[in-house]
Amino acid sequence: FSPPSAHTPPHHQHTPHTYHHCSNTRQVRSLGILRVLRLLRVLRLFKLARFFVSLKLFGQAIWNGMKELWLLLLLLGLVDVIFSGAVYFAEQPNESTVFVSVPDSFWWAIITMTTVGYGDMAPVTLAGRIIGGLCAIVGILLIALPVPFFVNNYTDLAEQHAERHTRHAMVTEMLARLERRKHKREAAEARSARHHEVETDDTKSLLNDGPPIAESAV
């Protein structure tokens, strides 16, 4: 058994390089947390929706059409799987193909259906290009399918809001008219009461200032 050399650090002792690496890792994590918190401050912009009726109605229309939205996502997922598998098998004759697997083809199918087309993945064979064209057409049709539902929801909500605003304006105007009539009636009653008091005071003054009634002669 030979004792460890003096220059060999013990296992429980960390080298300066280890401390430096740990400190850098902590700094990177802290900066990442700060960036996330700064990014969350952007969510304050959604508070502006309280001051815009159209944004409120738009959000409510989206919320009312959640069933159609989930149906759209389900259909897009199914079509994505179908076209991803189809383009993968269609591009297999090409040895330098970028479609190495069906999961890797999901990205191409999503980008093609949404008509974005980054160009990082593109079919080369004739069958792959035909599948790509069909994928784009089906994607456009699927995305355009729920648009009328959201438009109808927004239109209905806008009409309901306009009706409520009109009724509120009519009720406010009616209440204002009733309040004006009430004030006029109270003012008329006050003038009538003052006029009656003046007449009563005049009558009393005339009775007090008139000549005494002579006694009848016996």
Task: Give the gist of this structure.
With about 220 residues, the chain is an all-alpha fold. It has helices spanning about 15-40, 55-65, 65-90, 100-115, 125-145, 145-210.
Structural summary, described in words:
72% of the residues lie in helices and 0% in strands. With 218 residues, it is mainly α. Helix 2 crosses helix 6 (147-209) and helix 4 packs across helix 5 (126-144).
**Largest sheet, described in full?**
none
**Structural class category:** mainly alpha
- The parts where pLDDT drops under 50 for at least 5 residues are 4-12, 214-218
Topology as a string of helices (H) and strands (E): HHHHHH
- Overall 3D geometry? elongated
Task: Report the β-strand fraction as a percent range.
Answer: under 5%
- Number of beta strands: 0
Index terms:
mainly alpha, disordered C terminus, 218 residues, elongated, 72% helix
Topology summary:
Elements lengths: L15 H25 L12 H12 L1 H25 L11 H12 L12 H19 L2 H63 L9
Helix pairs in contact: 2-6, 3-4, 3-5, 4-5
